Amino acid sequence: SLALQPVITPELVQGRVHLRCSYSPPSPEPPVQFRVLWARLSSPGKREWVHHETTPQSFSYVEMDGANLRLGDTVFCTVTAFRRGTPEQQSLPEDSKGFYAGIKFLPESLEIAEDGEEHVLTVLSTVPIACPGQDDPCKITLQLSTEDLDSQEPGSPDVALSACQVDLLPGPCSGSSCAAATVTVTAVTDLAQDGNRVSRISAEPVAPRDLLWRAYTPRDVKVTVRDLPTGNCYSFTDPHIITFDGWRYDSYEIGTFLLCRSESRAFEVHVRQWDCGSHRSATACNCGVAAQ
After folding, report:
1. How far apart are CA 51 and CA 69, in angstroms?
2. Domain spans of the chain?
3. Is the pLDDT confidence value at 126 over 80?
């Protein structure tokens, strides 16, 4: 065992996306060669070999060509060392960690409530964004969409996004991110006691010129929306008023009044009451409402 510790990192080589497998050569260095096997996860627990080479270098490259290796693949490299002239004397093969090539959402799933709070969702690419040509924009645009999986009514989303599109722009890779953008997710307050519901957020590359991105659809994000109880207040006819906490009273005043105001957000309701009574009984009626 040589503790080669292979690690996969993404790189742009001549404008094309490559993966680099780097490993630590034994020290002091005898004349050693390395056999590097590249594989992708074809199904859970099953690997499919896509490339192999023998090299004296302490690294190996493979191209993300859209055929053998595609976006959405989890890629491994396995390294074995042997001395020149005695290939039968090999070190134990060592695996890298799986490298997921493609779009990731952080967090991978969300649980939010119908309370108006904004939750930040980060969209990142684990591979560099290549520039296809001089006249083409250097970015990948992702179209975002939402779908309520529990709704019987199409077109009634349970979550709202702050943007319908995000742009991933080229930049240096850092950690597991080569390009990133953020969007905020808010649960739609539907004023209905409809229980907890599940939605999903989908992303799709918009007309990419880069062949690598054309047939790629990133994984969805699952969003669980927790139902919250809804309060109601009323002002009706000659105004009978019922407050959020069930207190009932009548108001016979003439004029424009503040009916309701939130102390936590910009929301208030004004009501206008006019005289609708007779000489014998003074009565006011609702005749107008304004809501901010």
Report:
1. 10
2. 7-101, 103-226, 234-291
3. yes
